[in-house]
Amino acid sequence: MPATILPFTYAALPQPIYIDTTFLIRFLSAPNAGDPGYANFMAEHTDCVAFARRIQAESVHTFISDWVLEEFVFVRSRIEMERAAGAVSLRWMQWLGQDPSRLAPIVDISFGDFEKLQHGLGFSIVDLETDQQRAIRDTARLFMRRYYLQSRDAFHLAVCDTLGNRTVVTLDEHFARADGFSVLTCNRTILSGTP
Amino acid sequence: MVRIQNLWSASAEQFDQSLGLPSNNLMLSGPAQVSVLADNLHVEGRMQLLLGLAGSVRIDSAVLEDIWSEVR
Questions:
Q1: I need a labelling partner for A1 at 20 to 30 A (CA). Which of A52, A76, A183, A184 fits?
Q2: Please, what is the average pLDDT of chain A?
Q3: B38: distance to nearest CA of chain A, Å?
Q4: CB-based contacts of A89: which residues, under 8 Å, 6+ apart?
């Protein structure tokens, strides 16, 4: 059985809610004019902004783990590197290879955006105990096999499972395979039931 | 779960301090009033911060998908 799929407009939000990286990035980013994928990208972005406002207005309890932080910084940094490299017609690896110290201000931008998001949305970063980390590793392995998830997705769900939480806000279609979890989403493909 | 709940129960001021941000209620007085006003300021400040962040990063969807493909 798949996960229980809930739209962002779902009235009785379960709490707490684990925030996945896809939501944070979609909230933060919007498409360029002329982007062929503009319509869907902008629709999802707008939905994420509305849901972020709801999280705040209703004081919804949300949390993340270090795995979200790591993914966020990876994606946010790459966006910045792609942009800088593209401006001088280079690939990001070439651009960074010319001068590795170019990464320093990008680190500040990435962590700065993360901290602003944390303050704006009010989510907590869960502080895991050693025995919980051990359980998460075991559960992640189980979830990779059970739901055919990549390791990072499995670790997100394993954090939730170990802490007794089963609601995730995400735009990632892979989570829809996780039986026993509730997926809060604005992803049209997931909502249509054909991920 | 205990540790998460502890964080949630932290006051707005504690939350600000944990992030290295200045407290909202330094210029207010009276314990009860301070608490209410500080929370209101905190919510408004947070909302402004959120709306300022939303869509602040512009990128083509295809480039973003390429980046995600490396994450997964």
A1: A52
A2: 94
A3: 15
A4: none
In this complex, is the C-beta atom of B50 within 8 Å of any C-beta atom belonging to chain A? yes
State whether residue A109 sits within 8 Å of chain B by CB.
Answer: no
Q: pLDDT tens digits for A41-98? A: 999 999 999 999 999 889 899 999 999 999 999 999 999 999 999 999 999 999 999 9
The secondary structure of chain B as a DSSP string is: -HHHHHHHTS-HHHHHHHTTPPPS-TT--SHHHHHHHHHHHHHHHHHHHHHHHTT-EE--HHHHHHHHHHH-
Can you read off the two tokens belonging to residue A18?
């684990």
Domain residue limits at A98: 4-191
Q: How many domains does chain A have?
A: 1
Would you call B53 and A116 a contact, using CB atoms and an 8 Å cutoff?
yes
Q: Which of A61, A53, A55, A69 is nearest to A20 (CA)?
A: A69
Q: Write the ipTM.
A: 0.88
* Residue B36 φ/ψ, nearest 5 degrees: -65, -50
Amino acid at B33: Q
Distance separating alpha carbons of residues A54 and A60, to the nearest angstrom: 8
- State whether B53 and A152 contact (CB < 8 Å): no
> Is B63 near chain A, with CB under 8 Å?
yes
Residue A28 with chain B: CB contacts under 8 Å: 53-57
pTM for the structure as a whole = 0.83
